Amino acid sequence: MTMANSKYPTSPHLQIYRLPLTALLSIAHRITGVILAFGCLLLVWLLAAAANSAESYQLLFNHLDSWYGQIFLLGFVFSLYLHFCNGVRHLFWDVGYGFELETVDLTAKLAIAVAVILTIATWVVAGTV
Amino acid sequence: MSELRTPLSKVKGLGSAKDGTGHFWHQRLTSLLLIPLVLWVGFSLAAMPVDHATLVGWIQQPWVSVTLVLLLITVFYHAQLGLQVIIEDYISSHSKRTVTLLLTNLACLLCGMIGVISVLKISFGA
Asked: What is the pLDDT along chain A (129 residues), one digit of tens a residue?
């Protein structure tokens, strides 16, 4: 029996609801996790290039230094710090703190804000902003 | 006889996955370790001119080599654990799931090894 001709009442599906911030951050945690895994692949490649020779390092570095490389780095670093901040939020939940609705909402906003600040701070420290 | 689990299996608390809360616990331990490591590597790299000579010189400091190796092992173990959860959640076919898991685990292991050996090569004078 398919869902369409079932006599049982069906619940609205996931797409129907406007996702609360916490749900958005939850799925973002997984998505950024996957992005980071693939990003780490590239950073290991850079490390291997550096171990190989100055030339092969420079070749890859020029790509990272280009406009598309900087967009990648910006995405990677922001993903890193969003995953980082939301991960800290998870660690607090794991030890039993911060489950109240207002707290959950507050820490969600805090995680995004701190991730933005850390990302900007990275470029400020790098001296390119 | 409604209980099929042996008293020994119950007291061990390892469940059907055979490693109990091991996965959960290791995910948390690696994330704790990654808090200082990520901040350190992120801002260290941002703060230095990342030309080849400077990068190699930085990595060749013994404490940097050691910390980078620790970071690489922790990152790829954490990634493997995280990707495993996502794969187990979204791939329902048993055969596809098993193959994807094996390939992902192998990829994480290989990347971690390439990273560690690169650091060691630089550290011992590439």
From this structure: 455 567 777 777 777 778 889 999 999 999 999 999 999 998 899 999 999 999 999 999 999 999 999 999 999 999 999 999 999 999 999 999 999 999 999 999 999 999 999 999 999 999 875
Query: Domains of chain B by range and CATH?
Result: 19-123 (1.20.1300.10)
φ/ψ of A122, rounded to 5, equals -60, -45
Any idea what the CATH number is for the domain that residue A57 is in? 1.20.1300.10
Chain A positions touching chain B (beta carbons under 8 Å): 30, 33-34, 36-37, 40-41, 44, 47-48, 50-52, 54, 57-58, 61, 77, 80, 84, 87-88, 90-91, 94, 118, 121-123, 125-126
Assigned domain for A69 exists: yes
Q: Looking at the predicted complex, does its ipTM rise above 0.90?
A: no
Domain count, chain A: 1
Nearest to B56 among A48, A50, A87 (CB): A50
- Could you tell me if residue A7 is inside a domain? no
A4 membership: H or E segment, kind and range = none
Would you say the C-alpha torsion B45, B51, B54, B56 has a positive or negative sign? positive
Query: Domain of A44?
Result: 21-126
Closest in B31, B115, B126 to A44, CB measured: B115
CA dihedral angle for residue B25, residue B14, residue A31, residue A37, rounded to 10 degrees = 70
A119: tokens are 């990302």
